[in-house]
Structures are given as structure tokens and as C-alpha cells.
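re the bet — no i am not wrong, look at it urself. input seq straight from the record:
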Amino acid sequence: MTNSSALAALSDSSSSETLAAQLKAAAEPLRVEILAVLAQNSYAVSELARIFAVGQSGMSHHLKLLTSAGLTTTRREGNSIFYRRAMIDPAQPLAPLQQALFRSVDQLELRADIRAQCVAIASERAATSQQFFAANADKFRAQQDLIASYPVYGEQVAQLLHNTPLPSRHLALEVGPGQGEFLPVLARRFTHVVALDNAAEMLAHSRATAQTAGLTNVEFILGNTAQLAQHRVLADCIIINMVLHHTPSPATIFKDLSRTLTPGGALIVTDLCRHEQDWARVNCGDLWQGFEPADFTDWATEAGLNEGQSLYIALRNGFQVQLRQFFKPNL
């Protein structure tokens, strides 16, 4: 057997084992319901055990099967491990099966008792957040990073970008690059990068980060999304991290960015899920207290974009971050 034949056989064997694992994981009503619950939130084992009224050891067994099959994944927050649905890598042979499974799961209507427990846990997380920031108000009161700092979501955004099929990698646009932490990621993956910000001070921070990192393919534009057409920006991919909750009209931003995307191009949005922490609006300049996932879906649809993958990250301070992927249809 040639080396290429051996590798092909190994790949086929691996795919067969993964297929069997996914079919086994999906062949249990409880595990299907777990996948449905994890569609719009991430939970610890104890929380899932509570939602479904089963023991933690039993829940751990089900989660182990789902994770081994590649249907769920984990993230550590302090001493807790949160489970979430795994992102789909379109390049993987079994991606169509996973996509079809998730679509079918998302059409299920959760039982009233399950929904009630999910609502209760969300309320308790909000209370935890209030207590956390009340205890740290004097020290961190004005720091937006205390809610969701770049390290919390940066790696996941980079992974989602890596798994996003694009028509080309000529130009990427980042709206509101902040301190410029994500610019090196984009600069490595695209021929040209545009950083757009309507605050000169923040754009200066981004430029300094780029200079320190030795980035030579980044252009900085002072302005807003409505002005992108004037600069003739046409992007293969647009990134907007933790910006929309500061903007007066997020729906308008979606429309502006849709016009800026090439056909087949992708928009990746990272922002807070809806919360009731009014102090964040008062002390951090937030205009919106996060967003419902349906808000992004509706605004994207109105802007002519199709929805892709979604990822939800629960934070130990009670907040939750959503990573969303949208595509502009090909002509």
C-alpha cells in the first residue's frame, strides 16, 4: 500500500468512527434535548443536570458522549467548565451531517419545564453579575474589559474566522478595532486590512498596536460605516467585536456592512447577549444592554444576509457573549 493509500484508509477509518460516534450520541432523546438547549447558551454540568432533573454523574456521561462525537465542546471559566455546541468546520467530511443534525434539533420545541429552568438560571447569573460588580465597583467601575475582555472571545473569533469559507482573502475590514488586538490575526490571513473607527483616540491606539507588531498591510480610516462607500471598501470578510452595544442603530450597521461585503463574503459579529445590568450602560457608555440572538438574525435578514454558525460563551461574572456568522449571497 502506498503512503497516500494508507493515509486515505486512515482518514476513512477515522470518518467511520466519527460517524458512528455522532449517530450514537444523537440516538438518545435526552442528548438531543441537550443539544437543543446548548443552541443558545452554554452551561456547566450542574446547570444541565438541574435543567433536565437528572444526576450530575448521569449528565456527565451524556456530555462525554456528545463531546467525544464532536457535537459539543468545553470552555473553562475559573473553576467551572461550561459546555456548548461545537462549531462546524465546513472542510470536515461529516460537516453536512452535523449541519443537518443541528438544523433538525433547532426545530424542536423545548418542554415548558426545561424553558423555565433555563430562564431561572439566566436570572441567577444576572444576580451573580450584580454581586460581582458591586464588590468590585470601586476598582473596576469604568473598565469595559471587566465584562468581557479580549482574551475571553479572541481565540474563538479567530477559530470561527479560520473555519469560514470565503470567496478570497484579499481584504478584511474590522469595525471598531479598539486596542487593535485582533489586527495581527487579520493581517496574517488577508492581503490587505482596513481598520475603521469613528474615534481618533481609539484609532491611534490601534495604529500603535499595528506598528509595534510590525504590520505593514493595515490601513486606518477615521469614520463610520455609512462612509465606507466613499472609501470604496469592498471586503471579503468583516469583523465587528464588542462594538454594536455602543452604536445608536445596530440594524443600520448591518445594512451598511452588507453593502460593503463582496458576494459570498462573511460578516462575523461578537457582542453581549441581552442582560439587565444597567450599571454597564451608565458606567461603560453602553447604549444597549446586549442583544437577543433573534435581534441579530432579524437585522441580518433585513440586510440581505444569510445566517451561518453561532457560538455562545457563558462568563463566570454572569454575562454571556455571542459569536455570529453571516454571509452575503452569491450573485
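see?? Strands lie at 43-44, 72-77, 80-85, 171-175, 192-197, 218-222, 235-241, 261-272, 306-314, 320-327. told u. also The two ends are 45 Å apart (CA to CA). so pay up
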